[in-house]
Amino acid sequence: MKGRKSLAIMVMVTSLLVVFTAGCGILKNTAKLQEYEMGDDRIPSINAVVGEERQATGVEAGITAENVQFKQYSYSSDSVTDDLQAYTQHLREIGWVVTKDYNLTQSTGEVELAKESVEDEMVLVMAIVYESEKYEVRINKLKGVLTFY
């Protein structure tokens, strides 16, 4: 009985180490990404604009209950305001439009931009939630079209 319990603990520890190591590799690769991929769409990554100095702290991807594809990248940074100023300016220069007013002088907030996908009747919506030393870039791909008034 004692041998089985020890074996079970060793298997569990080994499994956790494999998951942890794989997770570290994903984060390391995320810090070097030059673009985010959403199907056929390619979006410049935060690192492509501000450099590879930002530490990736999390990556998520999936499909919501509403059938919306998403990817989310979390970063830590000592220069959140500068990063987001450069990134949002670059996105606007390549056709992204601001869909929600924002103020980067505030210590916390959210930026939201959108762009039509290269896929018909699909829209990319990027929300960047930020605090003093971190931010999360979430990209949603959903059915729709951008309409301007």
Q: Can you characterise this structure?
A:
The chain is globular and about 40 Å long. The chain has one domain. The strands form two sheets. The protein has a six-stranded antiparallel beta sheet. The protein has a two-stranded antiparallel sheet with strand order 1-2. It contains three helices and eight strands. The protein is an alpha+beta fold.
Write the layout of secondary structure elements.
Blueprint: H1 2-30, E1 35-38, E2 41-44, H2 46-50, E3 55-63, E4 69-76, H3 80-93, E5 97-100, E6 109-116, E7 122-131, E8 134-143
Antiparallel strand pairs: 1-2, 3-4, 4-8, 5-6, 6-7, 7-8
What is the number of domains? Answer: 1
Q: Helix fraction?
A: 25-40%
Unreliable stretches: 6-24
Q: Please tell me the overall pLDDT.
A: 84
Number of helices: 3
